[in-house]
Amino acid sequence: MRWSGALRATGEVVDLENAHQRFLDFYEAAPARLSRLYPDVATTLRSLIGSGARLAICTNKQQAATLAVLDGFNIAKYFEVIVGGDVVPFRKPDPRHLLTALEQLRRIA
């Protein structure tokens, strides 16, 4: 994992898999709690949809956490496809992640 150097810098022995799982447990319990939408995001999404745009999300975040954030801000309804990093065997910047989202969007058309 990329952040292992930061944990090792503390001088403590760290079980990275356990630390990562603990982080996910905390984060997924309330992923939108300390987050805020940027100003006008909801208005912009409505405008895009109103103009005929079709929207998808391709993220390295876990699918469940992504859906929880979108639902928490009541904006999930604007996205036809959401592809989290844990639902495909590859992650960004691998282009197959984005291509998977685009293919799913195409199939819905």
Range of helix content: 40-55%
Going by CATH, the homologous superfamily of the largest domain would be: HAD superfamily/HAD-like
Terminal CA distance: 38 Å
What would you call the structural class? mainly alpha
Detail the poorly predicted runs. none
Q: Tell how many strands the DSSP assignment holds.
A: 2
Q: What is the CATH class name of the largest domain?
A: Alpha Beta
What is the third-level CATH name, the topology of the largest domain? Rossmann fold
The CATH architecture of the largest domain can be named as 3-Layer(aba) Sandwich
| SSE series | HHHEHEH
Tally of contiguous helical segments: 5
Overall geometry comes to: globular
- What's the pLDDT, averaged over the residues? 88
Summarize the biggest pleated sheet. Answer: 2 strands, parallel
Describe it.
This protein is mostly helical. The chain folds into two domains: 1-30, no CATH class; 37-108, 3-Layer(aba) Sandwich (Rossmann fold), CATH 3.40.50. It is built from five helices and two strands. It has helices at 4-8, 16-29, 41-50, 63-72, 95-108, and strands at 56-58, 81-83. The protein has a two-stranded parallel sheet. β1 (56-58), α4 and β2 form a beta-alpha-beta unit. The longest helix is centred in the N-terminal third of the chain and has 14 residues, at 16-29. The radius of gyration is 17 Å and the shape is globular. The protein starts with a helix and ends with a helix. The mean pLDDT is 88.
